Amino acid sequence: MSNYSPEQNKKIVLEAFETLFNRRDYKAAEKFWSPNYIQHSAHIPPGRDGLFNLVRAAPPTLRYENSLIFAQGDYLMLHGRFSGNGRPHNWVAADLLIVKYGILMEHWDVLQDEASQEESLSGRPMFGASFPQYDTPPPASDLPKFALTVDQARTIVAPLYEALNQPAKKDVAALLAKATQPDYKSYSTNEEWLNREQLADVFKTIGTAVPDLRWTIKNILVSGDQITVRGEASGTPTGELFGAKPTGKSFKTMSIDVFTVKDEKLASAYHVENWLGALQQISK
After folding, report:
1. Nearest 5°: phi and psi at 177?
2. pLDDT tens, residue by residue, 199-212
């Protein structure tokens, strides 16, 4: 057990949540989350990067509010609400954390849609003193037969982008298997494509040349069974990258991926990256 008091731990955790979820200050948030952060939540990729990338991909309207927090030793439990999450309903969350020496080390959660007054059987709000007001959904007959939400899309693509963050340190094949169908095709032109195993080799090759490769999700759009992701790749090559020798300089470039989903996994992708711009940056 660390020598921090329960009240100190409460203050630290609330400031951590405010910094990450509401202020989106990822650099400042790093001081709160351990680099070896252990994640047990089923909808969040592993580690600190998995959590931070999930927040990066969330709508700018995302906000966390806390109503209750309890602490006993290194264990803390929070009752809070995530609103503006791109879903039809807010999420009411029970978060359980282990905090040691002022650092968030491990996390579990339980999430539930926040019911409106019309949906509540108890007749009492799940969070605060009033019920949320939601837009009236369209009739079921007006909804498309297959329509992904942004939140579902984010969960589906998350393992693939996790594999692109320092891939030399990841089990790339396992992450791609989690995200994609066995017959997945990754198109770099309208005709040429790589299968899942070939794509894993490409990820690992780039990861070897750029050990600190970081690939973040900047925006997600969904339309029917398609997901479009605008991403950003950055890093400092230490080995040869697409024929260019390392110069000690870093790059930052944009990517666009258009995925098709089948049975809750990625079936195909058409992707474009501005590698020419990246090579120009490291050669200047």
Report:
1. -65, -35
2. 999 999 999 999 99
pTM for the complete prediction?
Answer: 0.52
* Residue 234 tokens, joined: 């950055």
Select from 199, 168, 43, 190 the least CA-distant residue to 107. Answer: 43
CATH class, domain 150-283, is alpha beta
Domain ranges of the chain: 6-136, 150-283
Q: Which of 253, 269, 20, 40 is nearest to 156 (CA)?
A: 269
Tokens 């020419």 found at: 276
Q: What is the mean pLDDT of residues 99-106?
A: 96
Is the C-alpha dihedral spanning 12, 16, 17, 18 positive or negative? positive
- Round to whole Å and give the CA distance between 148 and 272: 23
- Please report the DSSP string for 87-136 in residue order: SSS-EEEEEEEEEETTEEEEEEEEEEEPPPTTT-SSSS-SSTTS----PP
CATH 1.10.10.10 corresponds to the domain 6-136: no
Cβ-contact 208, 168 below 8 angstroms: yes
Question: Same fold for the domain at 6-136 and the one at 150-283?
Answer: yes
d(CA 82, CA 92): 6
